[in-house]
């Protein structure tokens, strides 16, 4: 089978800041990240999902590490204020960052001293210190517009006023609320770096009214200002129709006060923002939300179009790509009538995840039109496969070194579950019943699959070791009851070597002594051996290298057990943790400090005593042996060495999924 070539992401976003500015900066980063990335708690939403990385100084480093991120465009927002300007280390770091031509640096001034770093003084700053109200919204609008200008302005113009996002304001000309709202939007847009088309004043004398409007729609993002009479006006309908015909990004502002007789059907299938009119005005927070939404939809629209275009190149039939889910309006582009003969212009339609509901899909199927998302296009049938997932967060300090946070690995687990469940596989996972934990993220995807397929089959098995399953809180019991039809809970009994060391197997045992920790460790090993024995393959990412409860780091032990059972193993080292250390041995023959006995004893309280108990029990834990096993590991995963090295190093979800699915298909 053909090797998977490295995927170059069209765009990545990087935030850089001095830890001394954390209190000011973090609220902006959190706000922007929530709007630019997938909502983990609502995986069926059609969020924009850009790859985002975070680099800040740490307690043992004056500045962040060098940024290694590669993409077609890497937009790097660096927050600068007195704390960085006063530091020679930071000035050198920023100078080197500007010299790196891979990075498109956009400075954010936290105060006026930010302009005193010479290497970036000629760049255009986002001036945070000038924001007086709605500060996070103003910041996001400025940030998102730069993403559009640098990454997605469709004519790829040089960055100037000509590369600004153009917004078309579609409104009823004889409706007071619609006119007032549109004028307010016009004023806010005019005060930004964006541009807009407002036909009451923007059509030049002597130009045809209809041609001017249509020509502006072709190159704009559309804001429909939907008031009570909007859908009854011919030109409003015509503007919507043209927007859909030319496949433009569209959002709706809902200003309905009393009601409407009939909504124009072509105005559906788009994002909607609700705004209230009080005293003939929209509040500033609503105005900014509207601009946020149109920017998000425009970036999403263009980003997904590029991603689908890359997929389309590998599809051999005639395929129509669509940046929003297909609808009845699209039939005119798909179906061709020649006399009494009806033919299809395309064999397939591909549109962005998540999939639409089966009732919508059936409408197209009855017409002989095949539609699917990237999740559904993969031909692999994994319905007889149990795929294990060893994915957990390393320490925060480890994640900071690679520009990631705890959401990266949760999203990775959720995305893998989406693709694997969509291919019919069952997922095998161990532990983590915490609120907002990994298992919960997998369950959300399984719930979607169950709803779509109307199936009662259970596709996730969660294994719990003794005595952990004896310590359920009321919240965990409620959680188990709620998801009983989706998740199978497998309780694995106490370790065989230690069952005679407890007075009762029905009573929870706290890991508060060396002996109790030994019992826990043996029980965790039994759980892992049982769990991995039920797997056909194992996907591994992250993993702590300290503060664990077993005889070695948990994900490391699962890799060793899977290897001994000769299972296919997929190692994602780009997401840090102990898996990164394992990949470093296989790829570079480099053994990290955390895979030495001395480091483990130094960084894990009570670990030496635990090892002594293992020795008394006839088992020696040797990190020299562990390293040798890793050096001689057989991944057996259907990937070439080149592809495995890609998998070891990728920081992108799509590339990781593509490689793993290719390996599983090869098997």
Number of continuous helical runs: 24
Average predicted local confidence, pLDDT: 87
Sheet with the most strands: spatial strand order:
21-20-19-18-22-23
Structural class: alpha/beta
Shape: globular
What is the number of beta strands?
23
Spatial extent as radius of gyration? 28 Å
Major sheet description: 6 strands, parallel
Low-pLDDT segments, ≥5 res: 199-208
Helical proportion?
40-55%
Task: Using the 3D structure, state the CATH architecture of the largest domain.
Answer: 3-Layer(aba) Sandwich
> Based on the structure, what is the oligomeric state of the protein chains?
single chain
Q: What's the SSE blueprint?
A:
Elements: E1 12-17, H1 22-36, E2 52-56, E3 74-80, H2 82-85, H3 88-99, E4 103-109, E5 126-127, H4 135-152, E6 166-171, H5 176-190, E7 195-197, H6 199-202, H7 209-217, E8 221-226, H8 234-245, E9 250-254, E10 272-274, E11 277-278, E12 281-282, H9 284-312, E13 319-321, H10 331-334, E14 335-338, E15 341-344, E16 348-350, H11 358-366, E17 370-372, H12 374-377, E18 386-392, H13 396-401, H14 406-422, E19 426-430, H15 438-453, E20 460-465, H16 474-482, E21 487-492, H17 514-533, E22 537-542, H18 554-564, E23 569-572, H19 577-588, H20 597-603, H21 607-616, H22 623-631, H23 641-649, H24 653-666
Parallel strand pairs: 1-2, 1-3, 3-4, 4-5, 6-7, 6-8, 8-9, 9-10, 13-16, 16-17, 18-19, 18-22, 19-20, 20-21, 22-23
Antiparallel strand pairs: 11-12, 14-15
Helix pairs in contact: 1-4, 4-9, 14-15, 17-18, 17-21, 23-24
Describe what you observe in this structure.
With 667 residues, the protein is of the alpha/beta class. The chain folds into four domains: 12-130, Rossmann fold (3-Layer(aba) Sandwich); 161-304, Toll/interleukin-1 receptor homology (TIR) domain (Rossmann fold), CATH 3.40.50.10140; 318-377, no CATH class; 386-666, Rossmann fold, CATH 3.40.50.450. Helices cover 41% and strands 16% of the residues. It has 24 helices and 23 strands. Strands 21-20-19-18-22-23 form a six-stranded parallel beta sheet, with helices on both faces. Strands 2-1-3-4-5 form a five-stranded parallel beta sheet, sandwiched between helices. Strands 7-6-8-9-10 form a five-stranded parallel beta sheet, sandwiched between helices. Strand 20 (460-465), helix 16 (474-482) and strand 21 (487-492) form a beta-alpha-beta unit. Helix 4 runs parallel beside helix 9 (284-312) and helix 17 (514-533) packs across helix 21 (607-616). The longest helix is centred in the middle third of the chain and has 29 residues, at 284-312. The radius of gyration is 28 Å and the shape is globular. It starts with 11 loop residues before the first strand and ends with a helix.
